[in-house]
Amino acid sequence: MEYSIREVAKIIGSKSNLLHEDTITMLLTDSRTVSFPEQSLFFALRTKTNDGHKYIPELYKLRVRNFVVSEMPPSTDMYADANFLLVKDPLRALQQLAAHHRKKFDIPVIGITGSNGKTIVKEFLYQLLHTEFNIVRSPRSFNSQLGVPLSVWQINPKHTLGIFEAGISQPDEMERLQPIIAPTIGIITNIGEAHQENFISTRQKCLEKLQLFQDSEAIIYDGDNAFIANCIEAACLSHKAIAWSRTDSEAPLFIKSVDKQNDRTTISCTLLGYNRKYVIPFTDDASIENVIHCMALMLYLKPTSVNHEERFLHLEPVAMRLEVKQGINNCLLINDSYNSDINSLGIALDFLQTRQVDKAMKRTLILSDILQSGTLPKSLYKKVADLVQRKKIDRIIGIGRDLKEYGVAFEMEKEFYPSTTDFIQSPSFKNFQDEIILIKGSRRFHFEQITELLEKKVHETILEVNLDAIVHNFNYYRSRLKPETKMICMVKAYGYGAGSFELAKTLQEHRCDYLAVAVADEGADLRRTGISIPIIVMNPEFGSFNALFENQLEPEIYSFRLLEAMIRETERRGITSYPIHLKIDSGMHRLGFQPKDMQAICDCLKLQSGVAVRSVFSHLAGSDSSVFDDFTLKQIETFQKAASQLEQGIEYPVLKHILNSAGIERFAGYQMDMVRLGIGLYGVSASGQKGLRNVNTLKTTILQIQEVPAGDSIGYSRRSYVKRDSRIAIIPIGYADGLDRHLGNGAGQVLINGKRCPTIGNICMDTCMIDVTGIEVNEGDTVIIFGDELPVSELSETLGTISYEILTSISPRVKRVYFRE
Ligand SMILES: *Cc1c(COP(=O)(O)O)cnc(C)c1O
Fold first, then answer.
1. What is the full DSSP assignment across 145-210?
2. Which residues contact 278 (CB under 8 A, 6 or more apart)?
3. What integer best gives the mean pLDDT of the chain?
4. How far is the CA of 803 from the centre of ligand 1 (A)?
5. In angstroms, what is the span from residue 733 Cα to ligand 1's centroid?
6. Is the beta carbon of 583 within 6 A of some atom in ligand 1?
7. Are 593 and 583 in contact (CB under 8 A)?
8. In the CATH scheme, what is the code of domain 3-92?
9. Residue 736 main-chain phi, psi, to 5 deg
10. For this structure, is 716 an active site residue?
11. Is 26 annotated as a binding residue?
12. So what's the pLDDT on residue 687?
């Protein structure tokens, strides 16, 4: 579909002068995804973290000439031939344009909302209906304020059915999406607690979602869900509701029975008085519910052909992820097993562009025939070739008869094979080197065989560290402090187990003021890897003065013996005013000077010039618990007295600090000049704060699954017996990796495919066993020991210890893998 830029300006209500006439076919919101610059209209969106206006110069260089902005560029001289459409809110303008576009089409449009299953229902419907309709649908889960307009923009006159999903996270959002999708038929999948932060209640969220259907002629929903039924009534939508039910035989679609067999489920139902039986290739409850929504929709839409049963039997699972994996020979694999069509190919190619860090890497695409597209192959592959060329792919490997036949359209390095097996057996398969490879195939071509062979095999047990979460947590604490308060980040004990170097680099980048380590060697290691911000050493040893001075590490001084040794060393080396940090014991009774020592310290410091006090501090013994609040306040008072006595005695100002993570959370009024952030940085809140993000995920994979008959024992010393015939998964992590032996014999749980599974038998040195009876798991599946869904605090509670101990006990042989989202 084409719009003239003049038309667009009118639709979005921009009065700006247009320098020349242009035709727009593509809407652009991400500067990295340009493929047809001359026909693209860029919307400069402002988000919490970024501002699209920044990218205008770069886009102009790439020959984009049309921009929707909320602020004109400082000087338009350099953009002599560009149109700038000034509006108040570019996102709103994009939505207006999409809503206008939608109005031009009088076709049935299915709108899907709900907490879970939107994308799956959408894709199932596509599979069920694509032979009869020419369907336009949301790519992947494009269902946001931005995703919905971009999805709807794809409608063209050839389409005979639209399927779009809508998701919201705040009140008032659906009001904006409704006119863009304007669904004639609605499906509400279910309502859960997800994305609830901005709503007062689940009911408010549900009512908000139902606004999508205000002008629909029919709404499909689970009639047994009294909560949704009630909201539909409250929203005055009952007259068009089409409920399906497992209990009410009067319902338009009555589900009489759901019978699960091994790998399939038979659903018997009564459809307007007729009995029917459908077999589907799933057994999990979520899929069954999703399929029933689709049945109800089919009932309403009455597609003409009769072989519905057949279509349900051949439904295929929907894979949602774009995975990035380390490949052999320094290759990077991007594996996209999502539906193969030209839209999702475009998205995957854009993703590839954003992942390429090393410009020298060759870009390779492994693509299968695109099935079920409704376009003639010749023009389809011409379009694909065009797209692939625009996205700067260097080499295409095409698999399938159509690609082989129409491959001439590709003007780049190319190879074609009739089948996946032919490709794997070809000499070229052994020659991948330094490439970024996008693997995208229809399910029928079984590209997982390719991925498996190209994947680099690593030790299966890793600690994944989310650097974005570190930054988030750092900023979370920063936001609770005055802007001028300095922050020390504690990266002692190898960054609480997460590995100090990557963390230190990240923190330095985000302008942390100080780092603190336990011993001088840790500090020296950081210096060697390029950390230049000040570093404090908490436990300087007498033998480590060399390492201190050579690396500009600032010691914590806690006793007269250490203070005197330090002064002697500086004088011997001719150093003056070397920064030190004095520690006062205000009640913890670990290391530190006593408050009564202050006068003597001052006397000692006045007689020398080798060291200068940079800061004075103390440590709280119970800041995490309200039980100790009186004690904490007394510690603070003791410290403040001692600190001011010091300042008066030495006659120059020093930085004062006492708060650790829990202290910042609970006693921010005493932040003084500086705070010391530790465990909170790693995502664990001592006082139950909700705003932190998890940083560490300890994960491994299943090595083997064994079927064990009832009555047998598992593992060393025969500590656990299985009471029923069981499936036991063996995973490569044991106490030598830091998995505490007390988590054995069912005391601990792990997470596999979203399900909690208990350990069984004693934990061994390098492995342990998990009871996975009755759960859908396979060898090679990922196992989470702790992470987002299974917080490390749960393990520490089970073990009667604290998260600190679990994190710092993970053995160095467990590889740390860092990632940003
Ligand atoms: C470890 C440590 C901290 C950080 O404590 P958290 O409870 O992890 O925030 C602060 N100060 C001192 C002296 C420490 O040793």
1. TTHHHHHHTT--TT--EEEEE---SSTTHHHHHHHHH--SEEEE----STT-TTSS-HHHHHHHHH
2. 266, 267, 269, 291, 295, 308, 309, 312, 313
3. 91
4. 13
5. 29
6. no
7. yes
8. 3.40.1390.10
9. -70, -15
10. yes
11. no
12. 82
Select the more confidently predicted residue: 360 or 177.
177
Q: What are phi and psi of 77, to 5 degrees?
A: -55, -40
Residues 503-532 pLDDT 10s: 898 898 888 999 999 999 999 989 987 888
Ligand 1 mean position, distance from CA 650 (Å): 27
Instruction: State which ligand 1 atom lies nearest to the alpha carbon of 660.
Output: 9
> Which pLDDT does position 235 carry in this prediction?
92
Q: Is 661 near ligand 1, meaning CB less than 6 Å away?
A: yes
Each residue's pLDDT tens digit, 209-267: 999 999 999 999 999 999 999 999 999 998 899 999 999 998 989 999 999 888 899 99
Question: Is the predicted pLDDT of residue 731 greater than 80, yes or no?
Answer: yes
- For the segment 116-120, the average pLDDT, to the nearest whole number, is 90
Please give the structure tokens belonging to residue 527.
């210096």
- Asked if 128 and 290 count as a contact pair (C-beta separation under 8 A), the reply is no
Q: 679: Cβ below 6 Å to ligand 1?
A: yes
Residue 719 assigned to a binding site: no
| Catalytic residue from among 54, 716, 755, 815 | 716
* Strand-pair partners of 85: 68
Ligand 1 pocket test target in 473, 490, 659 with most atoms within 8 Å of CB: 490
**Ligand 1 lined by 206 (C-beta under 6 Å):** no
CATH class (in words) of the domain with range 696-820: mainly beta
Does the Cβ of 678 fall within 6 Å of ligand 1? yes
Q: Which CATH superfamily is domain 464-682 in?
A: Alanine racemase (3.20.20.10)
| 459 compared with 277, residue with greater pLDDT | 277
Atom of ligand 1 nearest to the CA of 496: 8
Q: Percent of the chain at pLDDT above 90?
A: 69
State which of 476, 487, 660 you would mutate to test the pocket of ligand 1, scoring each by most atoms of that ligand within 8 A of its C-beta.
Answer: 660
Query: Global pTM?
Result: 0.55
CA of 658 to the centre of ligand 1 (A): 10
Atom of ligand 1 nearest to the CA of 663: 9
Q: How many CB atoms lie within 10 A of CB 232?
A: 24
Ligand 1 atom 6: residue of nearest CA: 678
Residue with tokens 């007062």: 200
Whether 413 and 395 have beta carbons less than 8 Å apart is answered as yes
Tell me, what DSSP letter sits at residue 737?
A: G
Instruction: Note if 492 is an active site residue.
Output: yes
Q: Which of 492, 583, 656, 699 is catalytic?
A: 492
Distance of CA 792 from the midpoint of ligand 1 (Å): 18
Task: Write down the domain spans for the chain.
Answer: 3-92, 105-313, 322-457, 464-682, 696-820
Taking the domain 105-313, which CATH number applies? Answer: 3.40.1190.10
Amino acid at 192: G
Pick the CATH number of 322-457 from 3.90.190.20, 2.60.40.10, 2.70.150.10, 1.20.1080.10: 3.90.190.20
Per-residue model confidence (pLDDT) at position 488? 97
Residue 385 has pLDDT above 70, yes or no: yes
* pLDDT at residue 821, rounded to an integer: 64
Strand partners, 580: 613
